Amino acid sequence: MSEYEYEAVRGLPGKLPEGESILWQGAPDWRTLARRTFHVRALAAYFVFLMVLRGISAVMFEAASPIGAVASALTLLPYALTALGIFAGLAYWHSRTTVYTITDRRVVMRFGIAIQLAVNLPFAEIGSAALRVLTDGRGDIPLSLTGTGRLAYLHMWPHVRPARFRNPEPMLRCVPDAARVAQLLTDAWTADAERRGGSTRAERPPRPAPMQRARIAAEVSA
What we know:
single chain; 4-stranded mixed sheet; elongated
């Protein structure tokens, strides 16, 4: 039983504070996750290559007939299906056990198959966001943090921007309608920044931030 087996609010480690509201919830699309994170297409191509190589080897070194070469190549098929099934299954369960939440104050990422974790990212600690649009409107939204807290890359994977080991960037990965979600995040971040700035202006000048508005840099890939 996980810590979040019985959630007061789905995807959140506790009840929402008074005045905070959920703007959006979603999860990675498991098919896109399987292709882009678990690389099932590359794995399938690798096994096809091995099967072709096995068939050629049977003809050249074992004097096998064409039918025998095909039969020899197909001996690798169970291994291929098993490996593809495992990786596709991992993508499916990562999707089923993940909930991304955007409220008007923060981003919350709840994830984990065996052990569930919840990561709270207040807007005050988010410096910028980027958007990479994939196929069918799905995409990735990595978040650059400005706070002093450090996130562990391995603990966050696969919900983290690839190859950012030194300063890991949590990422909403393979979300449907990513452009709309990114715009919603931008608007919520901006409104929260204006609210925080207004509440502290009389006490002290606001601390300089890397950006005055949440920037969404779109990178469109095939």
